[in-house]
Protein 1
Amino acid sequence: MKTPWLIRLMHLVSPSLPTGGFAYSQGLEWAVEKDWINDETTLELWLLNVLETSMTHVDIPLLQRLYRAVEHQDLAAYTRATQWVRACRETKELRNEEEHRGRAMAAIIKELGLCHGSMAPSAEKSDHEKWQKVIASSQLAGFAFAAALWEIPVKAAAKGYLWAWLENQVLAAVKIIPLGQSSGQRVLARLSPVIDTAIVIGLQIEGTEQMGSSLPALSMASSGHETQYTRLFRS
């Protein structure tokens, strides 16, 4: 019996999926250290800015490109989109996170038999290995690969991806600032509608000239976190 796509999506975005998302703050820890973020309001503004820029104009359009490439079994297009993802991670720390979580996704996908059992019967073993190599370089690529093969609609996959990112960021902030659990839940509730808007805009972006974002504060925070003296989260 085929597992419904909604169950597959919940599996894919579950905090129990061992991709290490909880281990990274994406610059939040340094931003708190410098008092850029110090309460519920400043946290919400920070996350709103990232949602409306990087997530809307980079991650969601590229998620769609990766998803389509898997659907058409176009490894060349999949590789190009993955290179775009890595190029848009502006610091060493963000690129390392993308790669480390990509390796974890590749291991999960292989363990679940997705890479070898779901491609065309004519695909050679070397082709599977090429897909695995690209997946291992980017967690977004791995997410899109699993979503496409599990036949999760791309819009739903995008919602799941943004929700998982937002939840991880809020949980990190609750620990770092620190905030009460209720404050974290209020931030999640107020930002949840922004996810729908981000997806509507992001999925309409087709040309590469429309993709990209400028987040100097995030880049500075991520760079500063690499050498921060006391850290809870990975660099």
Note: Residues 9 and 156 are 8 Å apart (CA to CA).
Protein 2
Amino acid sequence: MKYLLLPVFLLICITACKKDNDTITDGASLPKQLNYLTGRWKSYASYYSYGAEPVWKPTENITYVTFSANGEYTNSSNSTYDHFELRATDVDTTLRIYKEGQQSDTAVFLISINENTLVLANRMCIEGCGDKYVREH
């Protein structure tokens, strides 16, 4: 009897899982991601992990970033970078921000985005670090 209940239990667990369709993290919807990304964003939280579970804290120095549909990028706290691109794989999408006039020397972030929230996780942090942004209207 218990062997019959196990498949039923597993089926219930699998079908009960629901994916949040508003948040895009994979490369399958690159045009939708670019559409969501375009605009001005205000930082409101950040985290840096030293190996433990990351804890989001309110941003101390608010930063504004702007992404345009033609690939231009501005950052209120860093004028070194001026353009960006999204790169998609089967697993995730990365945001690459390039220094002025260059296509190498980049900052690379894993991106999670929906209509009003942007999360950028820096790929260079070993233990993890990232920033959350809210869309400016």
Note: The longest strand covers residues 39-48.
